[in-house]
Amino acid sequence: MTLGQLQDRPVSPRPLTGTVIDVMDAAGPQVWYDMTIEVALSVIAAARAEHLIVCDDDARCVGLVTQARLTAVRDSSGYTDRLRLGDITDDGGPFISSSATREEAEDAMPFGRLGLVPVVDEHGSALGVLAISR
Q1: Residue 66: helix, strand or coil by DSSP?
Q2: Coiled-coil segments, which residues (predicted)?
Q3: Angle, nearest 10°, between helix axes 37-47 and 67-75?
């Protein structure tokens, strides 16, 4: 048995440069904004997901909700069974363009914003999610 030559390569399986397409994760389950919180919790549990992409009637991304956010809303004193995902998502963003670099995406985020951010195409459809950390 002979030893082969070792090559240096990055530890991370993801490239450090390029667009967010190169470093994003799959979008995960996509649901409609008029879905109730209870149904959304059932979907997220069945999918064994950490988040849901929330879409409008035209399949454009309007936000993202996490299991923790859904649970907090359900357990709050203001919860009613009429509450919909559209009532708790931050309509209009923040979203990241699929052509943005990772550095541009991090620079575009509001100060202190960490976590998952939807990556959208030119039509507003969710392509994936980017984990923002500073």
Answers
A1: strand
A2: none
A3: 140
At CB < 8 A and 24+ separation, what contacts does 110-116 make?
115/66, 116/50, 116/51, 116/64, 116/66
Find out whether 38 and 74 touch, Cβ atoms under 8 Å: yes
DSSP state of 101: B
CB atoms within 10 A of CB 129: 23
**In this predicted model, what pLDDT tens digit does every residue of 106-126 receive, in sequence order?**
777 666 555 788 899 999 999
**Token pair listed for 35:** 């879905």
| The predicted structure's pLDDT at residue 3 | 36
Mean pLDDT computed over every residue of the chain: 81
Does residue 13 have a cis bond before it (omega within 30 degrees)?
A: no
- Which residue ranges form the domains of the chain, and what is each CATH number? 20-132 (3.10.580.10)
* Spatial separation of the C-alpha atoms in residues 92 and 56, rounded to whole Å: 11
